[in-house]
Write a structure and sequence with these properties.
The chain is mainly β and 1009 residues long. The chain is 7% helix and 49% strand. The protein is built from 8 helices and 90 strands. The strands form 10 sheets. It has a 31-stranded mixed beta sheet that branches. The protein is elongated, with a radius of gyration of 48 Å.
Length: 1009
């Protein structure tokens, strides 16, 4: 359904490393294995304290049979360690040379210690097919029930027990009495029966019942490695390639079992390494089982009507060629042997099951007929079954109350039939206790990881001729439970499908943790009891189950496709009546939005009628609002049950998330506004010069041609011109000017938010002298550079802007008419802070503008009325960037045509004062933003028209220095106040100064005086 995403990949790896998992490789033992699991994670073995901890094993034998090696790879230290066994090959010794105890009960048994190396001993019989003709115990034959051997120390290599006419068993040690401790390695031993059966390829332990007190078939402990031991029967069965326990007891076994076989059988081969049968027991089995093989059942271990209290070890590469249980075969047979009915029980298993294989059912574990496995902690990786249950096959009867409790991962297991990981006809508990477990990559012929087989009820049948005679009794329905338990905030992460008999199996999710479900549960009766169900995997899915019950207050996290008005939800076979026994609430605590919508309203179906009134919206009841923020949108969410169909819907109203609007807002109110400010203040010479009456303006232009007449009183004081020969004492129009500004505004963008804005900056410019042209035209060119900054704030978004501009202006004058054109360009940098973090945006901008007006003078220029039209074209481009929420911002260039007609009224007062008022209107045309944020096209924003009006004053102190201040109010699209002031200092000759008689240094100082 969903791909193995990055977020769950992390969960997967955490689950794999919660134990000290090792098994980095199994060397050449698995060279031919090519499972997909290797591409994801190389599984490892961890025996959790047993021999070979953190190791994989390889067994080698020299060509002369004189030495043996066990190589171990330690994944923690990344080293290979090799243990060598060097032996002296003795001559074959005939039958009878073995050690045979002669105890005959009571205290007459042997009580001592054997310490010897047994090499190439064998027992070969040729007599008639009687008990005495069996080949038994080529090393030690402890044959009487009261015979006691306290200690056996030694290695057993290449021993053989061969019977031509009867059984062969217990090649190294055949025990019918009591043995204390056995210490040694058992390598290459072989039992072969030509006419009958063979069992116990190394050790055969036989008694009349478990328990040391019965003094028969008891061994306190075995410590050693069992390597390449085997059984063979030409005309019967073979049991236990290394160890056979029949009505016996072994306290503990500690070692490694590699390459043992119960294969060469005419009929049945069970227990490639160990078999327990007929009320036998092992208290503690601490061992790793690698590459052991059985012909039929239990590639490594077979437990029949017996018990193992604890198993601590790993099972890798074991195989049951034709039968069941590639690693473990656990069965209650009740076969009428010499014992009463005994349920097979394995208490605790702690270990990893890797690459085990069964020709039929249960690639790793086969548990059947009421047998029990109380608890298994470990991972099941790349196991395989030729029929059902790639990792586990569970066929115990429900009436026994038996179940398997498993705490571990199921990864890349395979079944040709059903249940790639698990096939169960009985209850099975999957436990995640305080950590995450993963079910992933398991495959089967029917397409699921877990298959639960139930059976319908059967009515009793009666004799047609006599209805009182019951032929077959009624049989109740068989409904197995798959219990997904999440104790101590544990989590099950299930990527594979769960399947079973339609309507005849239950999936119960319990505990205070989470079940992350990313595939179907086909035909199951699902109960959610106090657990969090997580279906978030970036893919919308409708889970169609047979029945759905919310038993305890539970929660769910879902994917949400608001664009197509769909969400993850659970429905039932008939959509209504099969919500059985609801007693809790289902709280939708998380919505993973896959996309956004521009719709103002949306309604999405979630719950069928029987569940509808038990749904909460992030802890809120029906009709209450919960807010959700996505990188692009803000949503107000309500959950309501509709009266027309009694189903539950999540209803949304939405707007844009302010954070995603940062680019168009900054582009419009920051960058573009800064360019418009530049245009407004670039005409400094024009704004200063045109406030002067025509007479004085013409005098200044023409002073190199003729002497000026005396001006009127008020403009005489204004200009400070005197009667003198302007040709000899001409001044210059050249000057430098400085113009800082600040504006405090709020701007309501059309289709956008309301923005609080502070803009500030300053311009430094230079004006040239007047240039005379034809037909009475004069011109002045100016150049300028400026710093621009600003702060923008709206709904949790802050932006700081800094930049600079450079431009040139040419101004033309003729009588009372004047016009100017300016060309400017610059760059600006924005540091934007949103709820997701900081963003950096870079932009460039340019503009071309004109400003044209005419002076209508009254009372010889005392009063001037100026109609003015400013028109401009500007261009602003913000470079693409990725915002703090991870969306790629693609802003198209912003083009603006601005028209600004205005009217200015100036009064020329005495002493050089020039107060004025100005009012105008500003229209921005063709200036909508065009910005994409990821897959979302953001609203096109622009500044609406606004009025601009205010007053100012200009003061001419002398022919060199001019100052002014201005305050303009804005109302409409922009609301606030803009403040600016200016200073201009004229450069050139001082009137009335004799420059001819000055030195160069004196002329220079006079030029700036």
């Amino acid at each position: 359904m969903s791909k193995f995403g990055l977020k769950k990949t992390c969960s997967f790896l955490r689950a794999m490393t919660r134990k000290k998992i090792v098994m980095a490789t199994l060397f050449s033992l698995f060279a031919t294995y090519n499972s997909p699991v290797q591409a994801e994670i190389m599984p490892t073995i961890d025996s959790n304290g047993g021999l070979g901890l953190g190791s994989a094993y390889e067994f080698g034998q020299s060509t002369d049979n004189n030495s043996y090696e066990i190589s171990t790879f330690d994944a923690e230290t990344n080293t290979i360690n090799t243990q060598s066994y060097s032996v002296n090959i003795k001559d074959n010794v005939e039958s009878g040379s073995r050690i045979v105890t002669d105890g005959n009960g009571g205290s007459s048994g042997y009580n001592g210690t054997y310490a010897d190396q047994f090499v190439h001993h064998f027992d070969y019989t040729t007599g008639s097919n009687t008990a005495t003709s069996a080949a038994i115990g080529a090393g030690i034959f402890n044959c009487y029930k009261n015979s006691v051997i306290n200690t056996i120390v030694g290695d057993y290599i290449n021993l053989a027990a061969i019977s031509n006419t009867a059984n062969a068993h217990g090649v190294a040690i055949d025990n019918h009495g009591v043995i204390g401790t056995i210490t040694g390695d058992f390598i290459g031993n072989h039992a072969h029966s030509i006419a009958s059966n063979a069992w116990g390829g190394v050790i055969n332990n036989v008694g009349t019942g478990s328990g040391y007190s019965e003094s028969m078939g008891n061994i306190t402990s075995i410590t050693g490695n069992f390597i390449s031991n085997s059984l063979q029967s030409d005309n019967g069965y073979v049991y236990g390639g290394a160890i056979n326990i029949n009505q016996g007891w072994i306290g503990s076994i500690n070692g490694i079992f590699i390459g043992n076989k119960a294969v060469d059988a005419a009929t049945t081969g069970i227990g490639g390494a160990i078999i327990l049968q007929n009320n036998s027991s092992i208290d503690n089995l601490q061992a790793d089982f690698v590459k052991n093989v059985a012909k039929t059942h239990g590639g490594a271990l077979s437990v029949r009507d017996s018990e193992i209290a604890n198993i601590n070890g790993n099972f890798a590469g074991n195989e049951a060629i034709e039968g069941n249980g590639g690693a473990i075969y656990n069965v209650t047979s009740n076969n009428g042997a010499t014992i009463t009915d005994k349920t097979s029980v394995i208490g605790n298993i702690n270990g990893t099951f890797y690459s085990n294989k069964a020709g039929n059912d249960g690639g790793a574990i086969y548990n059947t007929n009421g047998a029990q496995i109380e608890y298994a902690e470990g991972d099941f990786i790349a196991n395989e079954a030729g029929n059902n249950g790639g990792a586990i096959y569970n066929d115990s009867t429900i009436a026994d109350g038996s179940s398997i409790v498993v705490d571990g991962n199921f990864l890349n297991n395979k079944a040709t039939g059903s249940g790639g990981a698990i096939y169960s006809k009985s209850d099975i508990d999957l436990l995640a206790n305080g950590h995450s477990n993963v079910i992933h990559g398991n495959t089967s012929g029917s397409g699921e990881a877990i298959y639960m087989e139930g059976a319908p009820a059967q009515e009793a049948t009666y004799d047609d001729t006599d209805p009182s005679i019951e032929l077959t009794p009624a049989v109740p329905a068989k409904i197995p439970n798959l219990n997904l338990k999440t104790d101590n905030n544990g989590e099950w992460v299930i990527y594979d499908r769960i399947n079973g008999t339609e309507g005849l199996y239950n999936v119960n999710m319990t505990g205070g943790g989470t079940v992350s479900l990313y595939n179907d549960i086909n035909g199951g009766n699902v109960t959610l009891d106090g657990t969090r169900l997580n279906t978030v995997n970036n893919d919308i899915h409708v889970y169609n189950v047979n029945e759905f019950t919310v038993k305890g207050d539970s929660s769910i996290a879902v994917d949400f496709d608001i664009k197509n008005e769909q969400m993850d939800r659970i429905t039932t076979a008939d959509g209504e009546s099969n919500y059985a026994g609801n007693s809790g609430t289902l709280d939708v605590v998380e919505m993973n939005f896959l996309n956004d919508t521009k719709k103002n309203k949306a309604s999405v179906l979630f719950a069928e009628p029987e569940l509808a009134h038990r749904v909460l919206n992030h802890g809120k009841a029906e009709g209450e609002i919960h807010k959700i923020v996505t990188p692009a949108r803000l949503y107000d969410i309500q959950y309501n049950v509709h009266n027309d169909d009694n189903r539950g819907y999540f209803e949304f109203s939405s707007n844009w998330n302010p954070a995603v609007l940062a680019a168009p807002v900054v582009l419009q109110t920051g960058i573009q506004s800064a360019m418009n400010t530049t245009i407004q203040y670039a005409f400094n010479h024009l704004d200063t010069y045109t406030k002067i009456p025509k007479f004085d303006r013409l005098t200044m232009m023409q002073q190199n041609k003729y002497a000026a007449a005396v001006s009127s009183d008020f403009n005489s004081n204004l200009t400070s011109l005197k009667e003198y020969n302007l040709r000899e004492n001409r001044t210059s129009n050249q000057g430098i000017w400085f113009r800082p500004y600040v504006a405090f505004e709020n701007i309501k963008l059309k289709n956008g938010p309301k923005v609080d804005s502070i803009t500030y900056g300053s311009f430094l410019g230079f004006d040239s002298d007047f240039h005379e042209h034809r037909n009475g035209w004069h011109s002045v060119w100016s150049t300028y550079l400026g710093y621009q900054g600003g702060q923008i704030d709206y709904t949790g978004v802050d932006a700081n802007l800094n930049g600079g501009v450079l431009g040139i202006t040419d101004t033309f004058y003729k009588n009372n008419f004047w016009t100017a054109v300016t060309l400017t360009g610059g760059a600006m940098f924005a540091d934007i802070s949103t709820m997701y973090g900081h963003e950096d945006a870079t932009s460039i901008a340019a503009a071309l503008a004109t400003k044209t007006g005419y002076n209508f003078e009254f009372k010889d220029g005392k009063y001037i009325l100026q109609p003015i039209l400013k028109a401009s074209y500007s261009f602003a481009n913000m470079f693409d960037y990725t915002n703090a929420a991870g969306l790629r911002i693609d802003a198209k260039p912003l083009h603006t045509i601005q028209l600004n007609p205005s009217l200015r009224f100036i009064t020329n007062c005495r002493n050089g004062w020039q107060p004025y008022v100005r009012a105008g209107m500003v229209w921005n045309l063709m200036n909508d933003t065009d910005v994409d944020a990821g897959a979302y096209h953001l609203p096109n924003m622009h500044i609406k028209p606004y009025f601009e009006y205010g007053l100012g004053v200009q003061k001419l102190y002398n022919h060199r220095f001019v100052g002014f201040g201005q305050a303009m109010l804005r109302h409409g699209g922009r609301n606030g106040i803009a403040l600016t002031f200016g200073l201009r200092y004229g450069l050139g000759r001082e009137p009335g100064v004799d420059y001819k008689n000055m030195t160069k240094w004196e002329r220079f100082k006079a030029f700036f005086k």
